[in-house]
Write a structure and sequence with these properties.
Helices cover about 80% and strands about 0% of the residues. By secondary structure, the chain is mainly alpha-helical. Helix 1 runs antiparallel to helix 5. It is globular.
């Protein structure tokens, strides 16, 4: 193990990054919905205006992911993740002072950049580069801990808003990112990029993005994760009206959806305990098959037990897809240019995620029935499985 004096080891580095993931995901992704009603009550803005800011943030996230990956490939990962946390903190502080829609949109353009520099993708790239022999273990730990962000976020943000008001809550969140997450990243990522030796026989370690673009596997995996992002985002954007179309109220819908987070974490926990010997390709096929299966349960199910089964299956699949995505790209293309390759793939996936709510709304207008929309999403899930199955290591093409 090559390590400078005072540089944290594998466990400490991953633990610090995992703590940063919980706080970053909670603030930058999950918390927005808690501020919609307070902002609407103060300003009188309609929901499309408010939701458009978050959509802009997601779009900027996708547009800047490749640049972030390229910076990490050039050895600037520590600067990226420290700067991203500071930028996120400043964005929240600015958000707390808004008084017009353009100000909200400007804040979320900044927060979109912060997303690309702090959430899973850059953390995956960095642990893959730093710990070539243990990156799968690191990614599993990061996602296992990060999976608690949604569970912890909503009660914590509700408490902050109740005690401090929505503006005060944003100040507290911004200070947490700037004064807690940024120093955690700075401490965890000290020292050289490579702190553990990789396999000497890794023939794919130097595949560049341009070379990856010439391999069928790159495009098939990009299609796989883009379709998955579309299906998942479309479902979550329309889940409450889809429940209403089944005759279920908000309380009943919540009683189903509350199982999603624990199932997601449980799937990752089981993988951490017993999944070390499972090949990522086999795991990927299995969990991607679970997605259309879960959506079929939702589309055709009309009772709470069936819908809870949907939430459990969908949650486990969602939790493990993140691990497959983070581990399979370096397994197929090596680590030397993982930032650019992963960044290019993620940019496409995030683009489809940003347009998914609108696309599903168009499908609803055309089909006139949420059950048919869910069946359409299930069919796209099947295409996702086929695309993933056809993607093989470049050396095997």
């Amino acid at each position: 193990m090559h390590r400078n004096h005072g540089q944290p080891g594998f466990g400490a580095t991953v633990a610090a990054l995992a703590a940063g993931q919980i706080l970053s995901w909670a603030v930058l992704f999950y918390a927005f919905t808690a501020f919609v009603l307070p902002m609407q009550a103060e300003f009188g803005w309609d929901k499309p205006t408010l939701m458009g800011a978050f959509t802009l943030g997601l779009a900027v996230n996708g547009a800047t992911t490749y640049a972030v990956g390229a910076a990490i490939d050039r050895g600037r990962g520590r600067m990226v993740m420290v700067g991203g946390a500071l930028l996120a903190g400043l964005g929240c502080l600015a958000w707390s002072r808004i008084s017009a829609p353009w100000m909200l949109y400007a804040c979320w353009a900044v927060l979109g950049v912060a997303m690309s520099a702090t959430l899973y993708e850059p953390a995956f790239m960095l642990v893959t580069k730093r710990y070539p022999e243990r990156f799968r273990d690191a990614i599993t730990r990061l996602t296992l801990v990060g999976g608690f962000a949604s569970t912890l976020c909503y009660p914590a943000v509700a408490l902050l808003i109740g005690q401090l008001g929505w503006r005060g809550a944003l100040v507290a969140m911004g200070l947490t990112l700037a004064l807690v997450v940024a120093p955690l990243h700075a401490w965890a990522l000290r020292g050289p990029t490579l702190v553990a030796p990789g396999a000497a026989s890794d023939a794919l370690a130097d595949i560049t993005l341009n070379e990856a673009l010439r391999h069928r596997a790159f495009w098939l995996l990009t299609l796989t994760f883009a379709l998955y992002a579309f299906v998942s985002a479309a479902f979550w954007a329309h889940v409450m009206p889809a429940f209403a179309a089944k005759g279920f109220g908000p309380a009943e819908a919540t009683a189903v959806l509350v199982w999603f987070g624990p199932a997601q974490v449980a799937g990752r926990f089981l993988h951490a305990l017993a999944g070390r010997g499972v090949r990522l390709r086999a795991l990927g096929v299995t969990v991607l098959l679970a997605v259309p299966g879960a959506l079929l349960l939702f589309a055709l199910g009309g009772t709470l037990p069936v819908l809870i089964a949907f939430a459990l299956l969908f949650g486990v699949a969602n939790g493990l897809v993140t691990i497959v995505r983070g581990g399979l790209v370096p397994e197929y293309f090596g680590r030397a240019h993982i930032g650019r390759i992963s960044g290019a793939m993620a940019a496409v996936a995030m683009g489809t995620r940003a347009v998914a709510p609108w696309g599903a709304a168009l499908a609803l207008v055309a089909l006139g029935d949420y059950r048919l929309v869910m069946l359409l999403l299930a069919a796209l899930g099947v295409v996702t499985v086929v695309s993933f199955w056809l993607a093989r290591k470049p050396a095997q093409d």
